[in-house]
Design a protein that fits this description.
Blueprint: H1 3-9, H2 50-62, E1 67-71, H3 74-82, E2 90-94, H4 99-108, E3 115-119, H5 124-130, E4 135-141, H6 153-163, E5 166-170, H7 175-178, E6 188-192, E7 206-210, H8 213-226, H9 232-243, H10 245-265, E8 269-273, H11 283-289, E9 296-301, H12 307-312, E10 318-319, E11 329-331, H13 343-349, E12 355-359, H14 365-377
Parallel strand pairs: 2-3, 2-4, 4-5, 5-6, 10-11
Antiparallel strand pairs: 1-7, 6-7, 8-9, 9-12, 11-12
Helix pairs in contact: 2-9, 3-4
Bound molecules: pyridoxal-5'-phosphate.
Cofactor: pyridoxal 5'-phosphate
InterPro entries: Cys/Met-Metab_PyrdxlP-dep_enz (IPR000277), Cys_met_metab_PP (IPR054542), PyrdxlP-dep_Trfase (IPR015424), PyrdxlP-dep_Trfase_major (IPR015421), PyrdxlP-dep_Trfase_small (IPR015422)
GO molecular function, one term: cystathionine gamma-synthase activity
């Protein structure tokens, strides 16, 4: 099956017992055990729930993995993956990684002596040089948030395989519709399913896909032991969201291109970060490893323009956290999503105060341009 069909019929397709075309919401915490020492395959919903399982099979199918796991947020998913490591281990991370991922490493896992090394993962030699015997994984996002740096997934996975360490990819920005890291050699794929996978800004959730039975066993043990599981109703919402992933992503891609080109022409804009521009340093790798360029665009306003006024004067585009919804969302990384990253690191990597990040939705692109036009005019 091709992915456009798989998003609708993958995982568990409907309900065998009744013929219902949707997987039922098994709103139950526990299951009756038919007799002593026997069970139906389910014992307790932290350990296993049929609605959650349908979602877990679906994301595993979409990512070409061995098994999937659903969590109560992207951060719960990331925390579960980081729980694979032990004191003394280190993880190499991309230098403009999602702020919350940096925070959990820097403020939580550091206390357990699990360390991190920051690298420019677009530079494979730098990554290779930073690996020593304490490094147990390379953790990347591509394109990165918010500067849209592109990392060569296969290049990273080849290095990791040679050193017998794990490759972990946060695939939130691309989704499996546009990019499937396991095909390039990644071991673990993570999603904040809150974003494009859910797609409707109505559920907070996280997903993990692993590529081997060994990792699946470990991840299930961690999921059951630490307990940050996704609720049955939220699992249902996510399955429903994923059914339209292909059509939504096609429109996101198309709108993203239109808006990126529009922004590039604006006098008020100093710089546009969009991996679909042929002069973007990661353009070739992006074109090789992904089926599109997505709809996240970051841009810097020129000094003479006030980003606060620009953001406050948007009407159709929603000023707020998050991304990947059907509605266009815009945020200010330095004070919002990336506030947890120390100011000097922010500046060094390019997350300046006048940088804004736009998640282009699936509205009519002319309406979006009209709204951006009006806000630019009021930003002087
Ligand atoms: C939002 C996000 C996360 C965190 O996910 P939550 O669902 O908000 O916990 C992790 N990685 C990326 C790239 C994100 O955009």
């Amino acid at each position: 099956m091709k992915i456009e069909s798989l998003v609708i019929h993958g995982g568990v397709d409907g309900d065998e017992r009744t013929g219902a075309v949707n997987v039922p919401i098994f709103q139950t915490s526990t299951y009756k055990q038919p007799s002593f020492g026997e069970n139906s395959g389910y014992e307790y919903s932290r350990t296993g729930n049929p609605t959650r399982e349908a979602l877990e099979k679906l994301i595993s199918d979409l990512e070409n993995g061995y098994a999937g796991f659903a969590f109560a947020s992207g951060m719960a998913a990331i925390t579960a993956v980081l729980s694979l490591f032990k004191a003394g281990d280190k993880i190499i991370i991309s230098n403009n990684i999602y702020g919350g991922t940096f925070r959990v490493l820097d403020k939580v896992f550091k206390n357990f002596n699990i360390g991190y090394i920051i690298a420019d993962t677009t530079n494979l030699k730098e990554v290779k040089d930073k690996i020593d015997e304490t490094v147990k994984a390379i953790y990347i996002e591509t394109p990165t948030n918010p500067l849209m740096d592109v990392t060569d997934i296969k290049g990273i996975a080849d290095i990791a395989n040679e050193k017998e360490i794990l490759t972990i990819v946060d695939n939130t920005f691309m989704t499996p519709y546009l990019q499937t890291p396991i095909k390039f050699g990644a071991d673990i794929v993570i999603h904040s399913a809150t974003k494009y996978l859910g797609g409707h800004s109505d559920v907070v959730s996280g997903l993990v896909v692993v590529n081997t039975s060994e990792l699946a066993e470990k991840l299930h043990f961690i999921q059951n032991s630490t307990g940050g599981v996704l609720a049955p109703f939220d699992s249902f919402l996510l399955i429903r969201g994923i059914k339209t992933l292909a059509v939504r992503m096609d429109r996101h891609n198309a709108n993203g291109k239109i808006i990126a080109e529009y922004l590039k022409e604006r006098d008020e804009v100093e710089k546009v970060y969009y991996p679909g521009f042929s002069d973007h340093p990661g353009y070739e790798i992006q074109t090789k490893q992904a089926k599109g360029y997505g709809s996240i665009i970051s841009f810097v306003l020129k000094e003479d323009y006030d980003y606060k006024k620009f953001l406050s004067n948007l009407e159709l585009v929603t000023f707020g956290e998050s991304l990947g919804g059907v509605e266009s969302l815009i945020c200010h990384p330095a004070s919002m999503t990336h506030a947890a990253i120390p100011a000097e690191i922010r500046k060094k990597v390019g997350i300046v105060d006048s940088l804004v990040r736009l998640s282009v939705g699936i509205e009519n692109s002319e309406d979006l341009i009209k709204d951006l036009d009006a806000a630019f005019k009021k930003s002087k």
